[in-house]
Structures are given as structure tokens and as C-alpha cells.
Amino acid sequence: VPTGSLAINASPWADVWVDGHPIGQTPLGNVVVAVGRHEVTLRHPELGERQQQVVVDSDTPARLMVDLQLP
């Protein structure tokens, strides 16, 4: 399966799940995932949960930045 790289950051910070699997706390860089569409869930104990979709390809690292303080 071809893979790509994903970098995830959140303001202020968040616990991160990719496709339902916990991968750590932001900031996260160079997360290796399969090429294609992924569901990223970010959770902060006071600011709640946010879900984003990201598309990863093998050529360019995908980057996701989420400001949890914005509605």
C-alpha cells in the first residue's frame, strides 16, 4: 500500500485520532499513513471535538492546522 506523510497541529492543543485510531497529541509531524482520504478527530477537554477530512498523497506531505477556539 502506498504511503504518505501527514502533519497535524491544533491551537491550543488536542489529542488526535486518525480513522478511529489514537496517534498522540499535537503537534504531530511525519505521521505515515496510507495514501487517500482520512478522517482526523481532534479532542480537547475544554474545547470539545472537531473532525476534519484530509487527503494524503505520496508526493507532498499533507498538513492540517485546526484552531479549536474558533466556532
Name a few traits of the molecule.
single chain; 71 residues; mainly beta; four-stranded antiparallel beta sheet; three-stranded mixed beta sheet; 7 strands; elongated
Describe the structure.
The protein is mainly beta. The chain contains no helices and 7 strands. The strands form 2 sheets. A 4-stranded antiparallel β-sheet has the order 3-2-5-6, with no helix packed on it.
Architecture blueprint of SSEs:
Elements: E1 3-11, E2 15-18, E3 21-25, E4 28-34, E5 36-44, E6 48-56, E7 62-67
Parallel strand pairs: 1-7
Antiparallel strand pairs: 1-4, 2-3, 2-5, 5-6
Put the structure in a nutshell.
This protein is about 0% helix and about 70% strand.
The helix/strand series, from N terminus to C terminus, equals: EEEEEEE
How would you describe the shape? elongated
Low-confidence stretches: none
Helical amount among residues, as a percent range?
under 10%
